[in-house]
Amino acid sequence: MIFHLCHLGRFIRPEILNKFDPEVLVYPRLVESDYLNMIKMAESHLPREFLLGGFRAVAERAIPQAVRDQTGARFLEIVLGRFFAEAAEGLFVDEIPS
Length: 98
Prior knowledge:
- This protein is mainly alpha-helical.
- It has two domains: about 1-30, no CATH class; about 30-98, no CATH class.
- It has helices at about 15, 30-45, 50, 55-70, 75-90, and strands spanning about 1-5, 25.
- α4 (about 55-70) crosses α5 (about 75-90).
- The radius of gyration is 20 Å and the shape is elongated.
- The termini are far apart.
- The relative contact order is 0.11.
């Protein structure tokens, strides 16, 4: 859908509107299948160790929140961060042995 900025003129000052192109693209909301497609595309580029390490499980757990928050492409960044955090949990100890 293409939305013309002239419609926003009633709400936003003209000097602000003039800083943008006259047309704004509005994309449809992403749904679960869109995020599943992102996961599949990412998996084709990830090292085998990521796939064996549970990347898909971490990604699938993140989908409901991504749909709710409409995270878009940031979804993969969020998932990778969670994947690394979960993988690192077992690498650290709470206490230094004496």
